[in-house]
Every structure is written in C-alpha cells, then in structure tokens.
Design goal:
Blueprint: H1 3-16, H2 19-26, H3 30-44, E1 49-51, E2 56-58, H4 60-85, E3 92-98, H5 100-117, E4 121-127, H6 134-137, E5 141-145, E6 153-167, H7 169-175, E7 188-192, E8 200-204, E9 207-211, E10 214-219, H8 222-230, E11 236-239, H9 240-248, E12 253-255, E13 260-261, E14 263-271, H10 278-291, E15 293-299
Parallel strand pairs: 3-4, 3-5, 7-10
Antiparallel strand pairs: 1-2, 5-14, 6-11, 6-12, 6-14, 6-15, 8-9, 8-13
Helix pairs in contact: 1-2, 1-3, 1-4, 2-3
Length: 300
C-alpha cells in the first residue's frame, strides 16, 4: 500500500478515536482503514494500536510515530501551500514593529519601494522602543536593535547599525574640537536615555578607548537627541544613518571619522511557524535587500 496514504489514514484514526469514525471521514470502509494500519505495522515490525472490540489505544511506539506522521504530513502540506503561493501575488496585511527612530528615519522612507514590489499588501506599522512580543500581541515581523534574548522566533541578522560622533559647529566653536577620544571626558554630551550610562567605545588599529562624556542632557526620544545636538547642547553619538543628513546640511560636524566606533547589531524577527505567507516572504526579502543581510539565519 502507499506509505503516505497509510500515514494519513493512521493519523485520521488517532484523531477520530476509532477506525469506523476515521473511515467515515475518509470515505473508506472500516476494513480498508484496518488494512492501511496493518500495512504500517507490518512495515515497522511493531504494533501501533491496541485494539479491542470496544476501544482502541496507542502503544508507546504508536504515540511517537503518530507525532512524526503529523509532522511529515504538515511539512508536505506546507510545501504544497508554498508552491501554490509562489505562483500568486503577495496580498493581505502585515503587522510590523520597529524601533521608533529607525522606523521613522529609515524604514518608512523605504516603504515606497516595497509598495511597488507588493501593491496588494497593506502594512500596519507600529513604532515603539519597547520589545513587543510578536506572538502574544499578534505581529508578523519585528526589526530589533541590540543583542537578543532567547525567544520563540526566527532571527535574520541584518547589517549592523554603524555609529557616528558629531557636534554642532556652534558647540565646537565655544568648547573646542576634541582631537582624541579621551578628550570627550571633559565634553558635554546629549544622550539617549536607554543607553545613557554606557561608555563610548572607539578603536583605531591596536588602540582601544572607552570614554564616558559628561551628560548635559538625556532624552528618551531619538529625534529630540539630534535636535538638542544641533542646538549646540553637546556632542552626540547616534547611528550614522540618522546623523548623515544633518552633517550634509552643516548642522553637525562629524568627529573622529578615522576611528572605528561600536556597532549595534540589527535583526529581523518573525514567527517560527513554517506557514509563511507570500506577503511575509516578500517583505523579508525586501528588508534583507534594503538593510543589508549578514547572510545568517538562526532560530532562538
């Protein structure tokens, strides 16, 4: 008998609770159901079901085998769904969460290109610096900055967030331009509240420096941090992606361009569930292309 069909019949029998009930649901005779299960038992060399005239129960081996059969049948079903989905246009809704500053300054401006790729997909984007629980709060995908704790999600590593140190021309005119990172210890800085207590780490060749500037002000909003720095309230260290526009406009001056600054890892997180929709698949491909894949996928 066909092994795959026999596995389907066996799982249906376990779920239905009896061969007769399974037979009714499958459109087979009870005798044919029994033949499929007998064929499996002969193939495996052990019993799967303990059967009496009134009831049936799984053997110890049958319990484990039933789980394996369910997994195999699910994988085949998902593969079929994926094959069908690959032939259709991405559509539906995606719920996405991203850090506030990254989302507003980098992700949102890039979404026009995704809309050209997948015009039938609607996006519900939530910007928050809180680590939203995708599973419990019903999100499909999340961008995350920094190291990640263990979770129930698949993690796709993206290009790290490169950092930049800068200050307003007015600030540098008043307090002088630091020539070495250690001089930052005597300078005022504008800090982002979640990371305000962390030292700034710079390296150049074999030289590594960690320095803690004096925080003149800390703010819990990334845009406000940049506004304060442009107003001359202090030196700032933020992602280069976010400061570059202000540097080009002359509002800020980049410092220590020849030093390597610490980087913040950036990741894309999504459900471990293997039932990936075409919409989710298309957005993951877009995000990896847009924000630089590290070619690394892991499950946590």
């Amino acid at each position: 008998m066909d092994l795959f069909r026999s596995m389907q019949v066996f799982v249906a029998t376990v779920q239905a609770g009896s061969m007769s009930a399974a037979a009714s649901g499958l459109g087979l005779s009870p005798a044919m159901v029994g033949q499929h299960i007998a064929a499996l038992e002969t193939r495996l060399g052990t019993r799967l079901l303990n059967r009496t005239t009134r009831r049936q129960s799984l053997t110890d081996f049958g319990t484990g085998y039933a789980e394996q059969c369910r997994d195999i049948l699910e994988r085949v079903a998902v593969t079929d769904q994926d094959a069908q989905a690959s032939q259709t246009q991405a559509r539906g809704q995606l719920r996405i969460t991203a850090p506030t500053t990254f989302g507003a300054q980098a992700l949102v401006p890039s979404l026009r290109r995704y809309r050209e790729i997948a015009p039938e997909v609607s996006l519900d984007l939530t910007l928050s610096d809180r680590n939203i629980d995708l599973v419990d709060e019903g999100f499909d995908l999340a961008f995350r900055l920094g190291s990640l704790p263990d979770s129930r999600l698949i993690v796709r590593s993206l290009a790290s967030y490169r950092m930049m140190i800068a200050a307003a021309p007015d600030y540098l005119k008043r307090l002088g331009t630091p020539r070495h990172p250690l001089e930052l210890a005597s300078h005022e800085a504008v800090g982002f509240t979640p990371s305000a207590r962390s030292p700034w780490r710079l390296s150049r060749g074999d030289e590594v420096v960690e320095v803690m500037p004096r925080r003149s002000i800390t703010v819990n909003h990334g845009q406000a941090v940049r506004t304060a720095a442009c107003a001359g309230l202090g030196v700032v260290m933020q992602p280069a992606l976010l400061l570059a526009e202000h540097v080009r406009a002359g509002q800020l001056v980049q410092l220590f361009a020849d030093w390597q600054l610490q980087e913040r890892p950036m990741s894309l997180l999504y459900h471990r569930d293997r039932r990936m929709t075409q919409a989710l698949r298309s957005f993951i491909a877009f995000a990896v292309d847009e924000f630089g894949a590290v070619d690394k996928i892991r499950a946590t």
